[in-house]
């Protein structure tokens, strides 16, 4: 009788073979009515450059080799949150998440010349408190786009076919999402992603790559 076990089925496959599983991203262009998007951009531009602080990583540390950008956590964008809630149900369905018993939190992030954010995840798994269930990023910038780069790179899941072997980072594929004005992306916080380096020749605050980065946080104990 033929051995149909998983081990036997994989025995003919090279020891370096891997599975590459693309990560789902929901991208919605022209998300807000044009006049609302322009008003939100102007609100971002009007935030004085010296009211931003250096963006942090991990436990609130500033690590320029990992992340270089500026953040303002008191930025108000109620019209954006209202629009997100209108599309939340289909986004949950596509990504396979539930935002029940969650609340949104967000801030304004600014990338200018030479800024970036190295590959990272938005959650540390079950140990992370409060738990992030869903990530969203809404992009704003002047037109024509006054900077180059700054795309969102989302990495595939890479898994060895043969158990007991570690996955290698270099085996991961990726897809880049352009930071188009008035577009928004949604993805799971567990996805590995990065902000590619930005080139902004003018270095002026108003020519930056603006983004409202946020999450839906679980407000009650969950699984």
Structural summary, described in words:
Keywords: Dioxygenase, Iron, Metal-binding, Oxidoreductase, Vitamin C. This is 2OG-Fe(II) oxygenase. Its cofactor is L-ascorbate. Pfam families: 2OG-FeII_Oxy_3. There is one protein chain. This protein is of the alpha+beta class. The protein has a single domain, classed as Jelly Rolls (Sandwich), CATH 2.60.120.620. The chain has helices spanning 6-10, 34-46, 78-95, and strands at residues 18-21, 26-28, 53-54, 67-68, 70-72, 102-111, 116-120, 132-140, 148-149, 152-155, 157-160, 174-177, 184-187, 193-195, 198-199, 209-218. The protein is globular. The model is unreliable at 1-10 and 125-129 (pLDDT under 50).
Please give the structural blueprint:
Blueprint: H1 6-10, E1 18-21, E2 26-28, H2 34-46, E3 53-54, E4 67-68, E5 70-72, H3 78-95, E6 102-111, E7 116-120, E8 132-140, E9 148-149, E10 152-155, E11 157-160, E12 174-177, E13 184-187, E14 193-195, E15 198-199, E16 209-218
Antiparallel strand pairs: 1-11, 2-13, 3-5, 4-7, 5-6, 6-16, 7-14, 8-13, 8-16, 9-15, 10-12, 10-14
Keywords:
223 residues, alpha+beta, Jelly Rolls, seven-stranded antiparallel sheet, 3 helices, globular, disordered N terminus
Beta-strand percent range: 25-35%
How far apart lie the N and C ends? 42 Å
Assign the CATH topology: Jelly Rolls
The radius of gyration is 20 Å
Strand order of the largest sheet: 2-13-8-16-6-5-3
Helix content: 10-25%
* Main sheet makeup: 7 strands, antiparallel
Would you report the number of β strands?
Answer: 16
State the CATH architecture.
Sandwich
Summed up, the helix count is: 3
> How many distinct folded domains?
1
Oligomer: single chain
Residue stretches low in confidence (pLDDT < 50, at least 5 long) are 1-10, 125-129
Mean pLDDT: 89
Determine the CATH superfamily: q2cbj1_9rhob like domain
- What structural class do helix, strand and pairing data support? alpha+beta
Pfam families: 2OG-FeII_Oxy_3
Domain Fe2OG dioxygenase: 90-218
Keywords: Dioxygenase, Iron, Metal-binding, Oxidoreductase, Vitamin C
Organism: Streptomyces thermolineatus
């Amino acid at each position: 009788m033929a051995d149909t076990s998983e081990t036997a089925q994989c025995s003919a496959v090279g020891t370096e073979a891997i599975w590459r599983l693309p990560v789902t991203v929901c991208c919605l262009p022209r998300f807000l009515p044009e006049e609302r998007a322009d008003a939100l951009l102007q609100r971002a531009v009007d935030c004085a450059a010296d009211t931003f602080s250096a963006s942090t990583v991990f436990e609130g540390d500033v690590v320029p080799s990992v992340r270089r950008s500026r953040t303002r956590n008191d930025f108000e964008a109620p019209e954006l949150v209202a629009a997100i809630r209108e599309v939340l149900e289909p986004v949950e369905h596509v990504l396979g998440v539930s935002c029940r018993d969650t609340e949104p939190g967000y801030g304004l992030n600014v990338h200018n010349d030479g800024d970036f954010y190295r590959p990272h995840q938005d959650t540390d798994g079950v140990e992370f408190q409060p738990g992030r269930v869903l990530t969203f990023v809404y992009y704003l910038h002047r037109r024509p786009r006054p900077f180059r780069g700054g795309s969102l790179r989302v990495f595939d899941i890479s898994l060895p076919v043969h158990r007991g072997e570690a996955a290698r980072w270099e085996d991961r594929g990726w897809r880049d999402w352009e930071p188009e004005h008035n577009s928004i992306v949604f993805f799971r916080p567990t996805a590995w992603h990065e902000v590619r380096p930005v080139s902004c020749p003018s270095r002026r605050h108003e020519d930056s790559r603006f983004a409202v980065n946020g999450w839906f946080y679980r407000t009650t104990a969950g699984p």
